[in-house]
Amino acid sequence: MSGFIIQRLLQAILVMAVMSVIVFAGIYSIGNPLEILLPPEATQDVRERTIARFGLDRPVVEQYFYYIRNLLQGDLGRSYIYNEPVLHLISGRLPATIELVLVSVLGALFVGVPLGMLAGYRPDALSSRIIMAVSILGFSVPTFWVGLILILTFAVQLGWLPSGGRGDTAELFGTAWSFLTLNGWSHLALPAINLALFKLAIMIRLARAGTREVMLGDTVKFARAAGLSEWTIMSRHVLKLISIPIVTVFGLELGSTLAFAVVTETIFSWPGVGKLIIDSIKNLDRPVMMAYLMLTAGLFVTINLVVDLVYAILDPRLRKGGAA
Amino acid sequence: MKDPAIKPLPGGAPKAVSPWRDLWWRFCEDRVALFAFGVVVLLVLMALFAPLISPQNPYDLSGLSLRDARRPPGFVGSGGYTHILGTDAQGRDLLSAILYGLRVSLQIGITAGAVALVIGTSIGIAAAYARGFVEAILMRIVDLQLSFPPILLALVLVALLGQGQAQLVTALVAAQYAYFARTAFGAASAERSKDYVEAAAATPLSARRIVFRHILPNAMPALIVVATVQIAYAIALEATLSFLGLGLPVTEPSLGMLISNGVKYMMSGRTWISVYPGIMLIILIVAINMVGDHLRDILNPRLDK
Amino acid sequence: MKKTICSLVLASVMGMSAVAASAETLTVGVRGGPESMDPHYSALGPQADAVKHIFDPLVWTGDDLQLEPGLATSWKAVDADTWEFKLREGVKFHDGSTFDAEDVKFSIDRIPKVTGPTTTEIYVRRVKQVEIVDPYTIHIHTDGTAATLPYDFVRLFIVSSDAAKDYSTAETSAEGFNSGKATIGTGPFKYVSWEPKGSLVMERFDDYWRGAAHWEKVVRREISDDSSRLAALKAGDVDVINYVSSADYLSLGTDPKIKTFLGDSVYVMNLQLDQREVTPKVRAKDGSKLDKNPLRDARVREAIDIAIDRQTMVEVVLEGLGKPANQMMPAGFFGSSEKIPTPEYNVDKAKALLKEAGYPDGFQIDLHCTNDRLPGDGAICEGLGQMFAQIGIDTNVNAISKTVYFPTQARKEYSVFMNGWGTLTGEASYTLGSLAHSPNKEVKMGAFNRIGYKNDEVDKLMQAGVQEADADKRRALFEQAMEKTMADRAYISIVVLQSVWAGRSDKVVVTPRADEETLAYFIKPAK
């Protein structure tokens, strides 16, 4: 068992190391950030001095090792643009993104699963067809397009909701959250709906597919034979049976929604991490790009590692297979 | 697009007698799906014959006039014909731009989908066939990538590779091949463990034959479902990247680029510049997804009545 | 649970009433925000715009970039390499301490230690040493003659030498200034809070030396998307916005609730034609190599110049938000010449010129431009493509992100390219010195001349100009250099951009500034 753990750990470290090389080389190849950051008036000696100060005159290999050395000491560097430690910059904006993502994924879950079950319960009914049509639309219409339509309709034409930003926040656990104030909710509503639509479509489809299979299975037949009402069957038994794949996908979707928030945050000027990353890419803010990618890679590698280990504990056969 | 399609469809092996014809008949049973399929065919034809049916070649700069820019639908421009859907900010006939944009979008979607299909399937089948160490390495990479959001990957790759059609397709392929690999691996390893394949594999001569005669055909239906979904997704992803300013160069706009170019005129009421390309994009993706959806339904043996 | 709900409702009601009560709060929606609260960290425009609310520059600039007394009341050159600045007396910092020469010296000395990649060293690049004569007089010793030194100081912000003492290294400055501990200036507003990309919140400083501001509280919200920013104004979330897009400008005229304010910007769009013997992105129409670079032929350059329909560019592409340009600076700037004619659009003559030059069928070029830097840059680029096609020059238009454009341009991989240039100081040594002078490290000029342009006369005029202490003579030298540069047509100016602010008509009146800053102190209440 410990041999297996060590092997998987080494694999994870290897993956991270390879990732860091690829990402660093890639970012390096885009170009020298100072070409777009230095002001036009910079004379040659000012240019050279600035380039040297940021270590950008060194060979790429040296820059890489310097970066890794700092990384191993827990120093992700400072943003070229904001002069703040990158970790501080990212963690300061993370709550906004997490809040947005959680609200939309939970919303998608609580609306999508009942709709999907309804569609799966009577697959040929008109209501089910409509639900499925909506889900295909939610699946297909690009997020940015929906976002713009939402702003035009609800913020500009009707004037019901604000067009962007985060609104009033209140403190909880030392962090500012929008969902604690009414004003915050009004700001949260449009971006959350925007982000949730895609997830809603997925939840509907999962729930429908699951329900259709379960309805054909023995559990439902027996339950019906036992005289249970349809409502009890659906809410007790079917829901329980379909919940496992939904919860699994829910977890996966949290991660991908974090990434997808980039689009929504850009449209609604939501002060989250996604907007920061897009702008860092555009400004060649290398430390922020590096840190974000390494943190994301690290997160996913860790999730995979944990999943592997849990499986290994649950299923001893895998340990043998993995060692092969 | 993580959805049930990436789960390998277990079994799924149609009977040896003309599985394709059987599939077609079952597909035709649903009128809505058939209609969607018709729409897809129509759109592909429109894209193919865009140069013949569009009133103007929007890519020929010498044929454009800035004086025609941003005219509403129905305007008769300097070319002497009516711009049915109006013109865009460069004076392009919007109908022509949409037809050509459809062409670009489909081209990108299909190229990316096809390349991802070939690469992904090869990896999946190689892993299933070789097993052991190769399988562990290949599928580990695939799994790792599956957990990485495609939009993020595409975003980074476009930033790294620069802008251009080839770079964009590369980014899309890199973001998508893993789904094919997973699906192919699932279907192939189910087949691989059957006795006759085990037996055949013992004779090294016929490896190619085994793959092409037995493993690949059985993996194909599931792969087609994934392919439809992934083509739709590639088109949507390209549009999104265009919107974020990381897409193709603006002179030969895809549907996504037409939309994002037109978006800034929404506030001033000149909505046609982005709404019509938007409608076209939505019709395209919805139709492809409906076809894929229905294919998945009829290929899922557990729902057979 | 009940308790939570009650407190939630209470919190939100209080949130609303807070908005209602502060009628004298000015909320500004800005396209770009500051990068740091340390005014010396970045030389970027939005940074200067934001920190100017809290800190004063040593030399003030008026709406048209003319120099005016600020913290320095007067200045004069006492000898070839020394400037004397007299400082304003009785100016207070936000913490109540008094401003004097010590703070100026401290601020200048601090810059090289704390500045970021968009380096503010450019403001003090000519300064060799700062000498305090008395608390309200300083002598700046320069590296050679620096005739334009006061122009360098228009964004030299003065921080408090006491408050910023412990926060003047690269590692500590962000901590000190972003937390507010060192954010003590002499400006009209006191710092309250800011976070990167978020809102900058400030409150009125009652002892401001120009007199207290009208607005009690100022909030600058960063909303980078043009449509979202306008939507925020229309929805009443903000009172003023900057950089109204040309797409929206005309339609805003019909909205009685919103008033627009139009001003000239400092930005001119310049087409640049590579003058090197061999140029990478020009070829014959069939793709084969040409035996020489056609852009070196004056007739070809003239043909390109008169193929550009500037009027259409302004009216159609920019929807009125610009003016045709005939030189690299807007009219009225120090060194702009009135003698330069605006090229006349003439397709037939352009074709004839091409024929005369030996290219009767034209040739093929790749045109490169930014598409995300200035309003209209990508669209102008596409428009150029259409216009060049009319005279037989096949043009592949590459309107790309500035992220790719500038590094590639610096490697000199382009042949025909266009980007905007802003004469931020309002005088010609900034523009001609960087673009028109041949690259020369010794005289520190030509850093942005990426087309191998060299005209000995222009070089001489510029070198003489930057040494000339007499303003009128200097102006004449710059004007001549400008005339000669434009006559060569290696740089072809297309349009001067204009900038638009929009505000709620019942609340604000904005006076446009040429440097495009949106200063809350100078935004007046309506009526």
Give a verbal description of the structure.
- The complex is a heterotrimer of chains A (324), B (305) and C (527).
- Chain A has 324 residues and is mainly α.
- Chain A has a domain at 86-282: MetI-like fold.
- Chain A is built from 13 helices and two strands; from the N terminus they run H-H-H-H-H-H-H-E-E-H-H-H-H-H-H.
- Chain A has helices at residues 2-30, 34-37, 44-53, 60-72, 86-121, 126-140, 143-157, 182-216, 218-225, 230-267, 273-283, 286-314, 316-323; strands spanning 170-172, 175-177.
- In chain A, strands 1-2 form a two-stranded antiparallel ribbon.
- In chain A, a hairpin with a 2-residue loop joins strand 1 (170-172) and strand 2 (175-177).
- By secondary structure, chain B is mainly alpha-helical.
- Chain B has eleven helices and two strands.
- Chain B has a two-stranded antiparallel ribbon.
- In chain B, a hairpin with a 5-residue loop joins strand 1 (75-76) and strand 2.
- Chain B is elongated.
- The model of chain B is unreliable at 1-16 (pLDDT under 50).
- With 527 residues, chain C is α+β, with helices and mostly antiparallel strands.
- Chain C contains 15 helices and 20 strands.
- Chain C has helices at 2-21, 45-51, 101-114, 149-152, 173-178, 226-234, 246-252, 298-306, 310-317, 347-356, 377-390, 402-410, 428-435, 456-467, 471-488, and strands spanning 25-30, 59-61, 67-69, 72-79, 82-87, 127-134, 137-142, 189-194, 199-204, 217-222, 240-241, 258-273, 282-283, 322-324, 364-370, 394-400, 416-422, 491-504, 508-509, 524-525.
- In chain C, the strands form four sheets. In chain C, strands 1, 8, 9, 10, 11, 12, 13, 14, 15, 16, 17 and 18 form a twelve-stranded mixed sheet that branches. Chain C has a four-stranded antiparallel sheet with strand order 4-5-7-6, covered by helices on one side.
- In chain C, a hairpin with a 5-residue loop joins strand 2 (59-61) and strand 3 (67-69).
- Chains A and C meet through helix 2, helix 3, helix 5, helix 7 and helix 8 of A and helix 1, helix 5, helix 6 and helix 12 of C.
Task: Summarize the helices and strands and which ones pair or pack.
The complex is a heterotrimer of chains A (324), B (305) and C (527).
Chain A: H1 2-30, H2 34-37, H3 44-53, H4 60-72, H5 86-121, H6 126-140, H7 143-157, E1 170-172, E2 175-177, H8 182-216, H9 218-225, H10 230-267, H11 273-283, H12 286-314, H13 316-323
Antiparallel strand pairs in A: 1-2
Helix pairs in contact in A: 1-12, 5-6, 5-8, 5-10, 6-8, 7-8, 8-10, 9-10, 10-11, 12-13
Chain B: H1 19-28, H2 31-48, H3 50-53, E1 75-76, E2 82-83, H4 94-130, H5 132-146, H6 150-161, H7 165-192, H8 195-201, H9 207-243, H10 255-262, H11 272-299
Antiparallel strand pairs in B: 1-2
Helix pairs in contact in B: 2-4, 2-11, 4-5, 4-7, 4-9, 4-10, 4-11, 5-7, 6-7, 7-9, 9-10, 9-11, 10-11
Chain C: H1 2-21, E1 25-30, H2 45-51, E2 59-61, E3 67-69, E4 72-79, E5 82-87, H3 101-114, E6 127-134, E7 137-142, H4 149-152, H5 173-178, E8 189-194, E9 199-204, E10 217-222, H6 226-234, E11 240-241, H7 246-252, E12 258-273, E13 282-283, H8 298-306, H9 310-317, E14 322-324, H10 347-356, E15 364-370, H11 377-390, E16 394-400, H12 402-410, E17 416-422, H13 428-435, H14 456-467, H15 471-488, E18 491-504, E19 508-509, E20 524-525
Parallel strand pairs in C: 1-10, 1-11, 15-16, 15-17
Antiparallel strand pairs in C: 2-3, 4-5, 5-7, 6-7, 8-9, 9-10, 11-18, 12-17, 12-18, 13-15, 14-18, 19-20
Helix pairs in contact in C: 8-10, 14-15
